[in-house]
Input
Amino acid sequence: MANILMVVSAADSLTMRDGSEHPTGYWAEELVVSHQTLRHAGHTVHIATPGGRKPTVDEVSLAAESAGGQDRADSFRSYLESIDAELSTPRALADVDAAGYDAVVMPGGHGPMADLYRDADLGRILAGANTAAKIIAPFCHGPAGLLSATNEDGTFTFAGRRLTVFTNEEELGGGTGPNTPWFVEDVLKERGAIVENGAAWTSHVVRDGNLITGQNPQSSEDVAKEVLKALAE
Output
């Protein structure tokens, strides 16, 4: 069985374009569905955050209208409670050696836009995992974390790679809207990634070798299944 590192944002707010603070964190569906799918397949999942701080769930993601109904919202909350000990004592990214893991999975929420995108320890982990051709699987806003990884010459580690991410359309229509401080899709393109979008709010997964990405919360299960497929290869 594989050892999987799940990197989660430790941010609880995002500074918006107008300077205001927007409460945020990780998106419940994304963490729950991916964690549950990977663990139920028999793999070991270790959660890690910047500084080893307990991550904050975005409360909006636990509302019935965001979760796809009250039953789903309740199931997400129940699962998070069942793994609270793991969430309360995550590994610190600074202490993580990528060599000890077979895959790095990064769920989103807007939190990664506040911390993971510039976290030097995450950049080291991702660069090492990529050099070793290990699976790297961020989804929704998780691909913001890819921006932390640079080569020795300062170029973006994932330039020229095919991927998908929460789109500008989705951000403007159902995310944080025009007040969003920056758009992950735009910055990834500017850094040289090849962004391939699907229809808004539908599952869309792109695999480019060891890089597996998903577009939105609806992609959570399909990303996890693609990781399982890659681990079995």
The chain has eight helices and eleven strands. The first strand starts at residue 3 and ends at 7. The helical segments are 28-40, 64-67, 70-82, 84-88, 120-131, 168-174, 184-190, 220-232. The mean pLDDT is 98.
